[in-house]
Amino acid sequence: MSNVPSCPKCNSEYTYEDRGLFICPECGHEWNLEIETENSEDKNVVKDSNGNILSDGDSVTVIKDLKVKGSSSSIKMGTKVKNIRLVDGDHNIDCKIDGFGAMQLKSEFVKKI
């Protein structure tokens, strides 16, 4: 039996190696062992809905209509948000949206421009 690591995303033990990448058949995660150890050192890696890495100052677009708590209006799909700031927590993007003011967004509902 070979020494194949468990999946870092779902902890599945059914991973296998293919052409230098480790693949998890349960969640579909693919990783390279060297890259995964580098990413584990940098804990605050935030990715958009397409998997692009976001950084402070990026511009993003909202990919679906988002309801705003305490307001009768919502943030419409296609709204552009400039100069985002990454923070720790469930909502990992701080930003200002025209017409709404300061907001916190989840990175899974935006894509990088």
Notable features of this structure?
113 residues; mainly beta; 1 helix; 8% helix
Structure description:
With 113 residues, the protein is mainly beta. The chain is built from 1 helix and 13 strands; from the N terminus they run βββαββββββββββ. The strands form 5 sheets. The protein has a 3-stranded antiparallel beta sheet. It is elongated, with a radius of gyration of 18 Å. The protein starts with 15 loop residues before the first strand and ends with a strand.
Rg is 18 Å
Mean pLDDT: 86
Structural class: mainly beta
Bulk shape? elongated
Biggest sheet details: 3 strands, antiparallel
Distance between the termini: 45 Å
SSE pattern: EEEHEEEEEEEEEE
Q: Tell me the number of strands.
A: 13
Quickly count the helices: 1
Beta-strand fraction estimate = 25-35%
Uncertain residue segments: none
Strand order of the largest sheet: 1-2-3
Helix content: under 10%
How would you summarize what this structure contains?
InterPro entries: YjdM, YjdM_C, YjdM_N. This protein is mostly beta strands and 113 residues long.
Indicate the topology.
Blueprint: E1 16-18, E2 21-23, E3 30-31, H1 33-41, E4 46-47, E5 53-54, E6 60-62, E7 66-67, E8 74-75, E9 80-81, E10 85-86, E11 93-97, E12 101-105, E13 110-112
Antiparallel strand pairs: 1-2, 2-3, 4-5, 6-9, 6-13, 7-8, 10-11, 11-12
